[in-house]
Write a structure and sequence with these properties.
The chain is of the alpha+beta class. The protein is built from seven helices and six strands, in the order E-E-H-H-H-H-H-E-E-H-E-E-H.
C-alpha cells in the first residue's frame, strides 16, 4: 500500500500509521502534553532530529557529554590555549563533518552546521541570525562561560576560513559569540 501524499502550504506530507508499545505510547502522550503539542507533532520533531542529526552521530564521531564536565574542562585551561585549540580543531572537524553530512562546502551548509550540529542538536547554544544587504550576523548564546566563548571564537573563525575561505568579525562575551560575515558582492565594491 502506497503512503497517502498530501500537499499543503508548508510542504508535501505523507500519512503513515505506526504501532507502538503501550508504554512508549504513554510516554509520547505525556511528553506531547508537557510540550503543548500533538503526538503527531512530537513524533515529527523526533523523526526530523533523527533524519538531520542522530543517524549521523557515530559516523561523524560525536558523543554526548554532560555540560558540567565540559564546563569543568574549559575552566581548567586559559583563554589563549582554548582559542588556539578551537583554531586547530576548526581546521579539520567542520570540513570533515560537513562534507560527510551535506556533501557540499558552501556558506549555507556551514551555517546550517553551526545552527543544527553545534546549537540545535549539539545543545551547545542557541543560534540567531540576521541577514542584511551587506552582511549576515550570527549570535550564539551559550552557558559555557568566557572560556567557552574563546574556544567558539577560534573554532568558528577557523571553520569559516577552512571551509568557505571567509573571514568574519567576532565579538565575544561570557555567554555569547557574535560574528559577522560580509557578503561577497559588497566585498568587491
Amino acid at each position: 500500500m502506497a503512503p497517502n501524499l498530501t500537499e499543503d502550504a508548508r510542504s508535501a506530507t505523507v500519512t503513515r500509521s505506526f504501532r507502538f508499545e503501550s508504554a512508549l505510547s504513554k510516554i509520547l502522550d505525556e511528553e506531547a502534553g508537557r510540550m503543548g503539542v500533538s503526538v503527531n507533532a512530537l513524533v515529527g520533531i523526533i523523526l526530523k532530529r533523527y533524519s538531520e542529526f542522530t543517524r549521523y552521530l557515530s559516523k561523524i564521531d560525536m558523543i554526548v557529554v554532560n555540560r558540567e564536565l565540559l564546563i569543568s574542562l574549559l575552566e581548567s585551561s586559559d583563554e589563549d590555549y582554548l582559542y588556539e585549540l578551537g583554531v586547530k580543531l576548526g581546521k579539520t572537524v567542520p570540513v570533515d563533518t560537513i562534507m560527510f553530512w551535506k556533501k557540499d562546502l558552501s556558506e549555507e551548509s556551514v551555517l546550517e552546521y553551526i545552527e543544527k550540529i553545534i546549537c540545535r542538536y549539539g545543545y551547545l547554544g542557541t543560534y540567531d541570525e540576521v541577514s542584511q544587504s551587506s552582511s549576515r550576523t550570527i549570535v550564539i548564546r551559550h552557558r559555557l562561560g568566557r572560556n567557552g566563548s574563546k574556544f567558539f571564537e577560534g573554532y568558528l573563525s577557523s571553520a569559516l576560513k577552512n571551509t568557505i575561505g571567509r573571514d568574519a568579525i567576532f565579538e565575544v562575551t561570557d555567554s555569547s559569540v557574535k560574528f559577522e560575515i560580509k557578503n561577497l558582492v559588497n566585498n568587491h565594491q
